[in-house]
Amino acid sequence: MTKTKILIAIMSMEIGGAETHVLELCKALQKKGMQVYVASNGGAYEPELTECGVIHYKVPLHNKQPFNIIDAYKALKKIIVTHDIRLVHAHARIPAFICGFLQLQLNFRFVTTAHWVFTTKFPYNLLSNWGEKSLAVSEDIKEYLIEHYKVPKENIYVTINGVDTEKFSPLAEKAIKPPEIERPGRKDFCIMFTARMDKDRSLAAHLLIESAPTLCSRYKGLTIYLIGGGDDFDAVNARATSMNEQIGYEAIILTGARVDIHKWLAMADVFVGASRSVLEAMSASKPVVAAGNEGYMGLINEENLQTAIATNFCYRGCGEANAEQLAADIITILDMPAEKRESMGKFGREFILKNYSVDKMAEDAILMYNTVLKTACPVPVSKTDILVSGYYGYNNSGDDLLLKSIVQDLKKRREDIIITVLSMRPKETKAEYGVNAIYRFNFLTIFWLMRNTKLLLTGGGSVIQDLTSTHSLIYYLGIIRLARRLGVANMLYANGIGPIRNAKNVERMRQELSQIELITLREEPSKILLDELNITEPKIIVTADPAFSLPQPDLAGAREELAEIGIDINRFFCIAIRSWRYNPPGFELNIARFADYMARENKYQVLFVPMRPSDDTEISKRVMGLMSSPAKLLENPRNIDSIRGIVALSTFTVAMRLHTLIYAINQGIPVIGLVYDPKVQWLMDSIKQPFYITVENVRMDILIDFANKILANYDDIAKAVKAAGEIAQNLAEQNADLCLELLDSRD
After folding, report:
1. pTM here?
2. Of 165, 178, 281, 674, which one has the greatest count of Cβ atoms within 10 A?
3. 294 neighbors 308 (Cβ within 8 angstroms)
């Protein structure tokens, strides 16, 4: 029977927690009949890998130097092709980055393990690729991946740091001890710390040194062993030497990096540390004081064990460590009767045997492997007609609707057109809209695809602005520049331009937009702004927002949904507000009092509609909490179309969100605009409706006046709004026609 082949890629196989995890995983997978290959920069664990039949290749995966990245790419490609490897498992950001790029070209499945909470700062976040599935070594790392990297929770499995319980065992007492700790008849106490002695791992070592005088004065002959090497070793060593002189004997001993830690642990009376080394100490039946750079827990016992597990024994958020508390907890253990210390050690050993075996760790990985291998292999996108760049995949109803309208308008005209979208959640985008999709920050993939792309479509929406952030503007302009340099045609599709507040950003915008082929704009003020900036070279046409071209929403489904939440479709209005940094202190109270008035005096039901739930739900609930009258919240709409249908059935709509207003206008529903961005005022002016006010000036009495005027002249206002929506719909239809004209010109 042919063995399953797997390539495991990690930065190095030097001594460390992640490296030990990989070592034990490789040995277990090999025992289970797989043929394991490891690519790394090598290190102390190489001999142990090869002893169990794992084939190791030395590949420079240990840093981000461009030449090393290139060499590593070539080496990994050769390994995968030579051995016909169909499954690759990366264990660090650099290997995952390179393997993710290789997957675009080679036919293999790709998974990862997250051992730590990596920085999400630019540009390091761009190096992160979490594969088709990912293992997280703790629940809090899983939550970190979901929150900060937007990895779908269904793609994450939680595993453990499995320990070789035969190697790390009380029986190791009988092993031949290292000569440095061979002390026949030893009766003095021994404190042990093991970790990679780096600045972000060595806090407990420094605290042990600081606590040494207290401990050594109480326990004559006590010895503290600090095991490990790293970039903080010299500083720790210097501090230990100075403290030894103060104490009067060599109480603190640094050994450097070791691969025989199990033999050293056999001599410990108390272990101090964090992460994987704690599991090894518990497996060896040693009492543990939990202390690390990320937090402090003290003695590990039944009461705090679940917290330790949840943080992968790193104690994130468990308080700061200090030398006084550390010394006190060590004294508590050493002053115990020997039988009680043995009982603490036995508790730890039994816990590891039950929950942290290497076999369980391997089974977790195999479950992930089998799940991935059973699904269809993702086919890399090799070419596309139109690459769409915009604010997509963020669960924002307005932007998602824009994408839907763009795709529908283009597909309606040309069914066979190939569209690929840059998305924050490409799998969801692909499933929802029937297009290809790739991760918007995977620049290597974008570069690879853009070489075979005819047209870059940027938009719709307000992406060319710096009100959100300069980084956002630089991202979109950077994609435009890359397309231009690769000979890809560029179009801004129904964009709103501005505001641009930074002079440097004005120049950046002028430089890039002056060199593209076509710009369509959703409002006249954007055209005026481009004229003022002397951007006149491209073909510029004022059209309308693509959302105006959407077909009729499902009103029957919307009626059912409203009935389910207890809304009378004949007498309700919608409010769509959002969190905004410039919302004044009285904004929420004024909205609440206005809503109360409409409910009390005009007998209207109030429905709050969060267009982007992550931003809008909380503020909606706060306003509802300020009301004395009951109100409803649309918490779980069926889909985007159901929101459109619900707004279309309202008597009128009050909204900050641009696309909520567009949904209403499309159906001839009167609107009150809350202007947080010029685009809202521009829309209201374009339909010649005066019922808007800036969020800074929102007052209950003004809103009440707007609503009363609308209700008093309802038919005439609704008719005018409907006519304006029809004009906008005709203009919006032009966007797709102009886009396809430009596309055809590239053939």
Report:
1. 0.60
2. 281
3. no
